[in-house]
Each structure stands twice: as structure tokens, then as C-alpha cells.
Amino acid sequence: MTDHIISVKNLYHTYQSGPLQKAALLDITMEIERGSCAAIIGITGSGKSTLVQHFNGLLRPTSGTVAVDGVNVQARGGDLKVLRQRVGMLFQFPEAQLFEHTVYADVAFGPRRLKLSKREVRTRVLQALETVGLPPHTYAQRSPFELSGGQRRRVALAGVLAMLPKILVLDEPTTGLDADGRTEFYYYLQRVQQKDGVTVILVSHDMSEVATLADQLFVLHNGRLVMQGTPRAIFGQGNILHQWGLTEPPLSELLIQLHKQGLAIPLDVFTLEEALHALQEIETTRHEKENV
């Protein structure tokens, strides 16, 4: 039986500003599997950030239910402190929130607020820095402001990981990073998921990022969930995806164009490795025909 760490049923959320109301989420029902990487995509204003803010109780449902690791977010008297320890959130440009004099102190800030022992705080900080590829003996006593943009973002990620979350929500996590910074961040994010079993929820406009990282994909449009499935299944329905203002990853677009030009690449090819294998088979077949 599939183990769902997040279950959303008939979720509606309406923003109220005086007499004005704006419906942001409309009848969302979805489930996210424990240990997976789920991506939530959609054009600006589709409701992505509103949705994920329900996962740690920053927002409460207007109606419907959100259950996170067995905790009902809407329940009165619910322990939001416990919920927010289980769900770590990293918003856009998190390095802008770094403020301590050393990397160690910044990563230790959250655990210290939990009133943990110095030994436990130290253990968590050192493990978190190792996990994101910042060896403590090299980085712990450095100022975060001396580091590159990608390294500062990994310090911010370490600060969230030091809280030992079961779920990690990232809203546009690689915005502003160069290609090397993005690649490094992807590597350590996948390491967190695989090594520690953390469920990763990714909000992104980057279809390449989504195709690389996600197991599950949820497409929002005007507050409604309009598509869900694996990235392979979703990106294989390009015409439908275009209706919601989205496009396939660049590799998928390229393969589609090559197929239209007569190159016999199977339509279900999705990854770079699969594309290379298909091209090798085409080349092998061509040589065999020429030698007949």
C-alpha cells in the first residue's frame, strides 16, 4: 500500500481583504508519497505558493482538509510547532535571510531555539553542513557573506536540515543561481532525499529542473489542479500542457522536433540517457542497412 505523507481533500482557500474576496485554491485533492520528490508547477498566480503554505500551517483551509504526516492542519488546538518542525520551508533567495557572523551560528540558530543541548546542536550543525557539501572544518567558522551565491544557498538549506524535517518544501530554489550553482544544488537536494528519506516538494517554473528531480508532478491553473502524474506522462501530453501556459522541458521539445523531421526517435523517450541510446540504435540500424 502506498504511504502518503501529505493528503489534501477538497481544499478551498479564499483570501479576505475587507469586503473583498479572492478564491486562490478551488477543490484541490492530491496525495504526496512519503520519500518522493513532488513538483508543483503552473504559471504565475496559479496558486502554487498558496498551496504549499498549507503544508506547515502558515495558511489554514477555508474548507476541506490537509493532513501532513498524520497532523490535521485545520484542527483546532493542533500543535503547529510540531508541524513546523516536521516541514522545513525554503523560499526564494533564502541566503538573504542569513545574518549571523559565522556559518556555524547561522545553521545552529533553529536548533538552539528548540532548547537542545549544546552537544545535540553541534551534532546537527556538523551533519547538516556535511550533507550539503560544506565540510565543517573548512566552512563552519567562515562568514556566510564571504561565500558564493550557491554556497550561501546551501548554508540556508543546511539551516533547514538541522531541524531534521521529514518534509522539505522549496519554492523556486535555484532562482538566480548560475548553471554550476544549480547543478550543485540539485546534487545535494537529491542526496538529502535519498540518504535521509526526506520528502521533497518543489515549486518551480523550470521544466528542466522538474524533469530532473521529480517523481510526481502536479499542475495548477487558476487555483485548480488540472493535471497530475509522473513527469514522463505529463510532458508526453504537450498539447494539453500548452493549454495551461506551460511547455515541455527543452530536451523533450528538441526530441519532438527531431521526430517531426523524420528521425525515428520513439515518442516515449524522456531522459538524455534514453535519447542517446535511441540515437545509437538509429545509427547502428543505418550502418547495418548500408552494409547489406
Structural category: alpha/beta
- Principal-axes shape call: globular
Order of helices and strands: EEEHEEHEHHHHEHEHEEHHHH
- Give the end-to-end Cα distance, rounded to a whole number of Å: 53 Å
CATH uppermost class of the largest domain: Alpha Beta
What's the domain count?
2
**Tally of DSSP helical segments:** 12
Description:
The protein is α/β, with parallel strands linked by helices. The chain folds into 2 domains: 31-58 and 88-247, Rossmann fold (3-Layer(aba) Sandwich); 249-292, no CATH class. Helix content is 41%, strand content 23%. It contains 12 helices and 10 strands. It has helices at residues 48-52, 80-86, 103-113, 118-131, 136-139, 149-161, 179-196, 207-213, 231-235, 238-243, 250-260, 272-290; strands at residues 4-17, 20-33, 37-41, 63-68, 71-72, 87-90, 167-171, 199-203, 216-221, 224-229. The strands form 2 sheets. Strands 6-7-8-3-9-10 form a 6-stranded mixed sheet. Strands 2-1-4-5 form a 4-stranded antiparallel sheet, with no helix packed on it. Strand 9 (216-221) and strand 10 form a beta hairpin. Helix 3 (103-113) crosses helix 4, helix 4 crosses helix 6 and helix 6 (149-161) packs parallel to helix 7. The longest helix is centred in the C-terminal third of the chain and has 19 residues, at 272-290. The termini are far apart. The mean pLDDT is 87.
